[in-house]
Amino acid sequence: MTTTSINLSSLDGSNGFRLDGRTPDRTGFSVSNAGDINGDGFDDVIVGSSGLYAYSSSNLSYVVFGKESGFSPTVNLPDLDGNNGFRLDGVPDGFQDSMDHLVSGVGDINGDGFDDFAITESTFFDEYYIGSKGYIVFGKEAEFNAMMDLGGLDGSDGFFVLMKQDNIILSIKGAGDINDDGFDDLIVSDGETDQDGITYHEFSYIVFGKSAGFGASLDLSNFDGSNGFRLEKDTEYSHNGSVSTAGDVNGDGFDDFIVGGGALDSYVVFGKASGFDASLHLSNLNGSDGFRLHSGEGGISAVSTAGDVNGDGFDDFIVDGGALDSYVVFGKASGFDASLHLSNLNGSDGFRLHSGEGGISAVSTAGDVNGDGFDDFIVDGGALDSYVVFGKASGFDASLHLSNLNGSDGFRLHSGEGGISAVSNAGDVNGDGFDDVIIGVSRADQNGGNSGSSYVVFGKAVGFDASVNLFDLDGSNGFRLDGVAAGDRSGWSVSTAGDVNEDGFDDLLVGAPDISSSYVIFGRSSFVDEVDFPGTPGDDIFTGTSAAESFEGGDGSDRMIGRGGADSFDSGAGNDYIRILGDDFQFVDGGLGTDILGLAGSGYNLDLSNVIDNIHGIETIALYGVGDNTVTLTAQDVIDLSQETNTLKIKGNAGDRVVGLSSGWTDGGVHGNFHTYTQGEAVLLIGVDVTTDFPIA
């Protein structure tokens, strides 16, 4: 089987779409899932731009709304009209030819049920930071204008983060809910600059969320402990620090956070209900309120939550040591000292990750890639390799050499190309219950020099080799996303997009800044190239054999007949009919429309609870086979079977049977040719000739 690859130019609206910015703005320099900004149940995405090229006017960002269907192959970002998304214009400062827009979802800061996001607008001159601005934009239900002027935020729709004249904002991230008041909080990292553009005396600030009372600008010097507080460090010239939520490290119900020192130290600060002073000097942390992390090496350059790696109920975190090593530190209820020297980790409290190569440049949680209940993480080795490390309950040594991963404890991802530019958790792209990862290689040459590629590697329960060559992905274990042409640098930034079209599969974001484009790629149940029965835009009729075969209906109302084997059915749009012979099928995806699953066997019992992860998008089950057939189900199965409705219709003859598990069904009587049963939101319409067996409330 040849490598499965998707050329991003082939996206047609049904499998994803392209987001085009203005050339040469380098739109796609930064991409992020934004949560659900407009509260319609679909995840949205945010795309930032960069002005590294002269004469660019890239003080722009764009928000694109998710929706169920009807995407065009290409969305021209400057043409967003407020209904499908909107443009965010930065504030001119005389250096528009060299500005970056870094974007990030930050949760729900004002507690109105709509997700909010942050934009950091940084200005460069001769490769030095000379100024920066930060903005928080609130989500809302509807009525976005096509363009939002970030300079016009008035407190009701968001606010400007006000710094001293010489200060720059290095980062704005979501901090979780530090004081557990029901509002997400922010962590802002900034620094002062001297006349040579060098950053020193870096500070960080916690901004507490609240329901109302935000002004048009937020002065970070006016915190009193009740609305937020300032974090002070000792170290001068502490540029390149990083900030991140840490989850709940000590398990007290309050989110904690990490502040990267940009030198030899980072700090973990514990959340609490109240009692914050206006200023917290990080050197005063005593173990009960947080602690210092000392690397003693080349400096700490990146920090991230790692989830719960050892499954003890406490969140863990990962710290990039800035050289060849990173460190995983385990959370616990108590017993932290004021200072933890990372070299003293012994396996029970955390462990060292040693790359032995070009240095570790990025760290990220990976979700649960192998589905064992322990969170995993991904480390960018800084050269041609990245590494996924599996969590486990115990048995960690004090040091783990990443080259020794053997497939059972993690694995290496080898690009063999121009170096890995970005790594991220991808969510569950193929809907198999295992989290996946995405790796960007912006200097790959599949379609010309620096066309760029991104690689999605699927999670699975077992069977990982010690090393996965990204060129060997075949659709069953992952796939490649190729930039369109030379110089695109696709994969510069990669991210999960959440579920943009709410079909139950997580989607992907890939940035290609050198052509000012980004791409949203929809998840689906299969990415294997070889389709035995490829569909057309019209109405297709396919009849399989007893071998394992794949059916892809595409548009139109299609009829797909399986004759046994591990068949896979992806019917796409339209009102489709899918027939299976038994329960040895691989998956059934009815897609959009009103779709029918037919049972062709005799004496077959389709127990939906056993196969519900492998069936999606079905609104009707037909029991007309050569003999009597049975469907066994729960109310939750009915709800999970279709993303479009909570009503399942079951047709059949005398002798066919439906068994409803769990108590609490209500008999709604016979209406026309169907007997109605309900439980909560689940509605069953069963043909009057079919025998029913339900525990009635």
List keywords for this structure.
697 residues; mainly beta; 3 domains; 5-stranded mixed β-sheet; 58 strands; 41% strand; globular; Int_alpha_beta-p; FG-GAP repeat-containing protein; hydrolase activity; repeat
Describe the structure.
- The protein has 697 residues and is mostly beta strands.
- It folds into 3 domains: 1-126 and 134-161 and 371-529, no CATH class; 172-210 and 229-354, no CATH class; 541-692, no CATH class.
- Helix content is 2%, strand content 41%.
- The chain has 2 helices and 58 strands.
- The strands form 11 sheets. Strands 42-44-46-48-51-53-57-56-55 form a 9-stranded mixed β-sheet. Strands 1-37-35-34-33 form a 5-stranded mixed β-sheet, with no helix packed on it.
- The radius of gyration is 27 Å and the shape is globular.
- The protein starts with a strand and ends with a strand.
- The model is unreliable at 52-57 and 193-201 (pLDDT under 50).
Helix/strand/pairing category: mainly beta
Mean pLDDT over the full residue set: 85
Silhouette: globular
Span between termini = 53 Å
Question: Which spans have pLDDT < 50 for at least 5 consecutive residues?
Answer: 52-57, 193-201
Strands side by side in the biggest sheet? 42-44-46-48-51-53-57-56-55
Subunit arrangement of the protein: single chain
Backbone CA Rg: 27 Å
Largest sheet: 9 strands, mixed
Q: Give the helix tally.
A: 2
How many E-type strands? 58
**How much helix, percentage-wise, in residues?**
under 10%
Strand content: 35-45%
Domains, number: 3
